Protein: Beta-glucosidase
Amino acid sequence: MTAVRPEATPLSAPATSFPQGFTWGAATAAYQVEGAATEGGRTPSIWDTYSHTPGRVRNGDTGDIAADHYHRYRDDVALMKDLGLKAYRFSISWSRVQPTGRGPAVERGLDFYRRLTDELLEAGVTPVATLYHWDLPQELEDAGGWPHRDTAYRFAEYADIMARTLGDRIGVWTTLNEPWCSAFLGYGSGVHAPGRTDPAATLRAAHHLNLAHGQAIGALRAVLPASAQTSITLNLHQVRPLTDSADDAEAARRIDAVGNRVFTGPILDGAYPEDLLEDTAHIVDWGSLVHDGDLAEISRPIDVLGVNYYSPTVVSLATEGVGTTKNDGHGASEHSPWTGSDHVAFHLANDNLTAMNWAIDPSGLHTLLTDLSKSHPELPLMVTENGAAFDDYISPEGVVNDPQRIAYLHAHLDAVRRAIADGADVRGYFLWSLLDNFEWSYGYSKRFGTVYVDYSTQRRIPKASAHWYADVIRRNALPAVDGQNNG
Structure:
């Protein structure tokens, strides 16, 4: 996949069509699917340590085996080909290729990604690599983790290794996946690895993740061919005030600052927003945290912005007894991930919920994409994650019917189509997720996959949604609903 602008859809095409050249893909993450946690020289990441800590993950589940993608990648790529996927977005396990997070790489680890990449190319599926999807080598966490500036420099060295290894075969590189989760859930609320709860460390981690991104873009650009494309993927919160009151507007502003603009400000605009700095000045000394030259490094140009969306974020000023952990969608914790905005309350947008208790609201994706296209019209967009968990099961006939997921995907793909019609430069869509997998602190209790995984046998069963998605890809259009175009 190269994120070139798709050709305009002919005027005679049905309203549900997508532009010619639109990229259709699916995504996974290394720790969630690979397994083989101790094979080939791989050492523990923070998620290995976290999942093996009693009480951290539901049912004591770990990613030791996960979906066993490490051993079954050939079968999984064959599935991708059968479904007609044009691209596969996967992440690289940092500790599989550079076990200590520093120094030379382990060839056995690199060989897995060489084999996976070659298998994808042979199948006609474009590989899209993410360098970091939350699995920091434990040795780097022991040395300070993301709150420690040196981690950003180590990440740039890792990016250089991967670009030199696969830069001739992979043309699209993403530095970080959802750095908000890494910083605010990992160091703020503690519901993600490494499980720390330190507000100052949260903001320091956010800055050093930004710096790591910029450093990595520089390292990639120094090695990759000019045709290669670089990106970052952000889980931008589509923030809405609960009411029209000034208090709720203030709550939305604060959450937009600490949830979105802490990343988009420095990465896209070259500066941290002043209101964010004011909101959090009592927590961290930004003057000493941000060094001369950091913002220029962080704001290196990227070729495409990855956007992950699942549900809108509805907020109000907290009232007595209602705090930030109420329905914020990020797991229960006595510690708020919303550093500097502990007095904001969260609400569900509606009562149409997924198995994660996330409100289904595709209008939020349309708004997010159109707002981004207006604020940064020169920057192409890619929906790099969108999907839903439901309580899937195998029927007596041996099939997995998931009509709720089909409805979810249809509605959200229609939101993408409408955003494109409204002028948003959206180049593609990656469904989350290809496979059922280890869902972080929820373990194996939640299924996001369009392919069912029987974890006792590792058997793969494409769900009804997989066949539906394959048909959308084949048509490059959404199917009619009740005989009518969904336009």
